[in-house]
Amino acid sequence: MTTRTGEIIETQGKPEVDTATGMTKYADVYGYHRVIKTSEIVQTTEGASKLDW
Hints:
The chain is an all-beta fold. It is built from no helices and 5 strands. A hairpin with a 4-residue loop joins β2 and β3 (about 25-30).
């Protein structure tokens, strides 16, 4: 994912958007579950590895 500030966040699998909360949840390269405001994301791509929620 790429953020508005230009930060590139590597993810495992495809990030999931929760339209009810306006947040996107993803797993970072270490497998930790994270959330970020969907409005802060400019581009989303699927990570190279998969993580089962």
